[in-house]
Automatic annotation (TrEMBL):
GO biological process: one example: Mo-molybdopterin cofactor biosynthetic process
InterPro entries: MoaB, MoaB/Mog-like_dom_sf, MoaB/Mog_dom, MoaB_proteobac, MoCF_biosynth_CS
Function description: May be involved in the biosynthesis of molybdopterin.
Cellular-component GO terms for this entry: cytosol
Pfam families on file: MoCF_biosynth (PF00994)
Pathway: Cofactor biosynthesis; molybdopterin biosynthesis
Swiss-Prot/TrEMBL keywords: Molybdenum cofactor biosynthesis
Membrane-spanning segments: none
Gene3D superfamilies: MoaB/Mog-like domain (3.40.980.10)
Family membership noted in the UniProt record: Belongs to the MoaB/Mog family.
Domain (MoaB/Mog): residue spans on this chain: 9-153
Organism: Marinicella litoralis
Descriptive protein name: Molybdenum cofactor biosynthesis protein B
Amino acid sequence: MSKITLNIAVLTVSDTRTAETDTSGLKLKSCAEADGHKVVAQKIVKDDLFHIRAVVSAWIYQSDIQVVLITGGTGFSARDVTPDAVEPLLEQVIPGFGELFRQVSYDEIGSSTVQSRVLAGISNRTFVATIPGSTGACHTAWTAILSEQLDSRHKPCNFVDLLR
């Protein structure tokens, strides 16, 4: 069985990053492309609940996007609203994604991982995940979870099976 190539959109949530300084968005893009997927959209928005929700809603609606990866805004500061913006858009939440991310992340950053409100789910046959804004967290999320779960050949199950 050959691997299914997915169309992925990457959203960076930040008040300070630009296309030149967005190392986290670039990390997700490079990991996705290295695994044979296609990044069809990439954008940076400010830490604003409605801006985030507008972009993610539009991407969920597009039939040619199967995956939306969002980096940034997952902490507990007043400006960290990414999970709050995204969760109402999800038809099904995947609790194990955040649980597993924090478990794996614990080995890297210790108890600080409890301050990560990582979230994932499915909406309109689109997989949506929020990931912390650090480049290291994006690498961890990709290598520990996303690489396998976005591979249609991974058994006994994968997220690709939920997108068709």
